[in-house]
């Protein structure tokens, strides 16, 4: 569950009048399962999010539910050394803050910051597998294809951070992505792959440009781009083949895993928010 989805679900619980406790990692030192600012929300019969699992999370859930049984639950802080107190081998220390979920508490939650913005071109097998993996990762995705029927049928449960874009000229979408955006190109035609990739390489601010294919495909595209006047510096920014080195296999799910791992390795510490510049 991404921070954005967690926040939206917490608001939905409030709107339903459902009593719950917010558990926040107020501070952490040393090796811990999650970092400062991580939150989860605990009701009597359900939990949203996670603060890292294990004995720490079990203790937090138990304390939160004890608070729910109180008529007037006051905020409380729990200072927990993970090794001595909980028997976890992380060895760090966390301070948890437990407080009743409220509109005021939610107002203090920071706006979720995505790890990266990705413009993904192609709704084929690998594209679909990548989208499935990104469903639970805090990022922003523009999923572009000119074939509307290639997208999976809508179910109403699609992640809000993944936007489908069906257009006749996918390469024109490249200019609409924010600075630092990542691009993955894996369409159903090599000529379309070429147009989109060239548009990406002509940008000087792309954070990552990945093209599905072999080293032979890369060499062929590089020769064509050079004749179109792209400088060596731009050509060097093309990653093809794609996928984290060491993960072997060409099955869509395996390739998707290698590619998402590669994107996470390239993700900056902070990413700009996604701002749409056009409407459809």
Q: Can you describe this structure?
A:
This protein has a six-stranded parallel sheet with strand order 8-7-6-9-10-11, with helices on both faces. The chain is built from nine helices and eleven strands. Helix 5 crosses helix 9. With about 280 residues, it is of the alpha/beta class. Residues about 270-280 have low confidence and may be disordered. The protein has helices spanning about 5-15, 55-70, 80-85, 105, 125-135, 190-200, 215-225, 230-235, 250-265; strands at about 20-30, 40, 45-50, 75-80, 95-100, 115-120, 140-145, 160-165, 180-185, 210, 240. The two termini are about 30 Å apart.
Short characterization:
The protein contains nine helices and eleven strands.
Attribute tags:
elongated; disordered C terminus; 9 helices; alpha/beta; 280 residues; 5-stranded antiparallel β-sheet; 6-stranded parallel β-sheet; 11 strands
Order of helices and strands: HEEEHEHEHEHEEEHEHHEH
**What portion of residues is helical?**
25-40%
Q: Return Rg in Å.
A: 22 Å
Main pleated-sheet profile: 6 strands, parallel
- Mean residue pLDDT: 91
Query: Terminal Cα separation, in Å?
Result: 28 Å
- Sheet/helix structural class: alpha/beta
* Adjacency order of strands in the biggest sheet: 8-7-6-9-10-11
Low-confidence stretches: 271-280
Give the total of beta strands: 11
Strand content: 15-25%
Outline, from the CA principal axes? elongated
Number of helices: 9
